[in-house]
Amino acid sequence: MAEAVATWPETATCVAVRLDAAGMLHVCAPLGLDDLLDGVWRRNPRRVTAELSRARLARHDPGRRWPEVRILPP
Fold first, then answer.
1. Exposed, middle or buried: residue 41 (CB in 10 Å: 0-12, 13-18, 19+)?
2. How far is CA 51 from the centre of its chain?
3. How far is residue 12's CA from residue 68's CA, in Å, rounded to a whole number?
4. How far is the C-alpha of 12 from the C-alpha of 35, rounded, in Å?
5. CA distance 57 to 49
6. What is the reported pTM?
7. What pLDDT shows up at residue 1?
8. pLDDT per position in the chain (74 positions), as tens?
9. Quick check: 4 and 14 in contact, CB under 8 A?
10. What is the predicted pLDDT for the residue at 29?
11. Where are the alpha helices (DSSP H) in the chain?
12. What is the DSSP letter of 30?
């Protein structure tokens, strides 16, 4: 699962959580949790080219939706 999660488009989205039968949460964050917890929008170079990242930034406009997010341009 970690290999797949590590290819999601932005580093902060490279996180998956599952609940096991015993009620324990398991976090899979192959690129870490820093960008998610620090509110950083950064492209994942494993998946997204700089050109595609610029298009995603224009389409999603994260700075408008989340004014506190720090955008690291490609």
1. buried
2. 17
3. 14
4. 5
5. 12
6. 0.85
7. 86
8. 899 999 999 999 999 999 999 999 999 999 999 999 999 999 999 989 999 999 999 999 999 999 999 999 89
9. no
10. 97
11. 2-5, 34-38, 50-60, 62-65
12. T
Burial class (CB in 10 A: 0-12, 13-18, 19+), 18: exposed
> What backbone phi and psi angles, to 5 degrees, belong to 53?
-60, -45
Structure-token match 């998610």, residue found: 36
How many CB atoms lie under 10 A from the CB of residue 43?
Answer: 20
Locus of tokens 């820093």: 34
**Can you read off the two tokens belonging to residue 62?**
């994260």
For residue 25, what are its two tokens?
Answer: 């949460």
- Residue pair 69/37 in contact (Cβ under 8 Å)? The answer is no
Residue 25's identity, in one-letter code, is L
Q: Are 43 and 10 in contact (CB under 8 A)?
A: yes
